[in-house]
């Protein structure tokens, strides 16, 4: 039954005209005045730039035979899978490993230039409760950022509302250099995705889910922030999160990033110390007038 749904979705996706491809966003780094709020936005965008590819590739892996190698824009991946990526699978049967290779200059859904390799080790059909798949990033680059990451996903079954719930544990290291200073940012996070729509189709345009979870952000082994995500609503028909809140704390100080109440817009509201500032999600930066040099993440007090 699930196989039939997947095959039907592959046929339907060929009819899509509107795509997930969106206008590029500015990924320039911010040097030693970087704020944790802006770094959080950059991290969300780079994650989403590959998450939709992973979701498409894991479904393609159900139908691909061992030894097959297919390029992007193939119907098995959905209409908006990047054409510069090549997907291969090592086996007809489970467990199987899927490999996604991004060539130099590859640009995908979020407008991000990316290159490198990621693998998806699948224990079973992902629509089976208890299925586990492990995604590993090997020297994946987004612009001048290098990301090493391992995420373990587990299908927890359907909740009382009938929605599929996928739990995950993630450890990632992001490295980049700006103005002769090197940043190494480690994220350790445990969370869940509750799928509201699109779980059993390969295309991204119908994907809707809620993210929840908690973990930490450590910068250059010196600064450590705690991070909590509450009901972050992702609808992949939109480039930006539609609603939800991310809370970031360090010591006695806390900050929130509020993505609104459902509008597909370019703005989130960051609140700290009784003040609020708008941050542009496309550029990943606070708007003009933000006194960055007074509130960067290195400050003991008053950081943003």
What would you call the shape?
globular
Number of helices: 3
Helical fraction: 10-25%
Radius of gyration of CA atoms, rounded to a whole number = 19 Å
**Count of individual beta strands:** 15
Strand order, largest beta sheet:
1-2-3-4-5-6-7-8-9-10-11-12-13-14-15
Strand fraction equals over 45%
Average pLDDT figure: 84
- Number of individual domains: 1
Contiguous low-pLDDT stretches (5 residues minimum) are: 1-29
The helix/strand order is HHEEEEEEEEEEEEEEEH
Verbal overview:
With 304 residues, the chain is mainly beta. The relative contact order is 0.15. Strands 1-2-3-4-5-6-7-8-9-10-11-12-13-14-15 form a 15-stranded antiparallel β-sheet, covered by helices on one side. The chain contains three helices and 15 strands. The protein has one domain. The model is unreliable at 1-29 (pLDDT under 50).
